[in-house]
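Check these lines:
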Amino acid sequence: MTDTTAPEATPEEAAGQSGIRILAQFVRDFSFENPLAPDSLRAGAAQPAIDMGVEMNARGRPDGLFEVDLKLSARALRDDQAVFHVEIVYGGLFHIAGVAEEDLEPVLLIECPRFLFPYARRLISDVTAEGGFPPFLIDPIDFAGVYAARKAQAEGVQIGNA
């Protein structure tokens, strides 16, 4: 039998490699409201309209690591009444190596949220199911598109205020 595992890199070799390492993942804040229960759970009620929100934030730490927060919120309304409201801020602690300074922001606000999204999505699905609704499965999010739109919006605001 042959050894198919790659040899471990020495610390000096690892320092020259680029990459993203997730050191920790955590729920920073989590809220679920079901204000009209049990009436909102009746079968045959009209499908609610759902409003989704997505935010990404990142900050550097003195130890050289980065904290990234992914905030997802969903509000379901039926006849202008809240059926449910769920909000989660799911965070991660990242070590990022070998990334140029000009590429750091997109890595933090696109690639890191891609790592966090499946876990936050599952928590929302689980809590809506526990709240008596069908599991609410958020469609995959184009974080690059969200980042580009927010960047263009911020530049437009700055240009407009000049």
In short: The first strand starts at residue 19 and ends at 33. Residues 101-130 form the longest helix (30 residues). The beta strands are 19-33, 49-60, 66-78, 81-97.
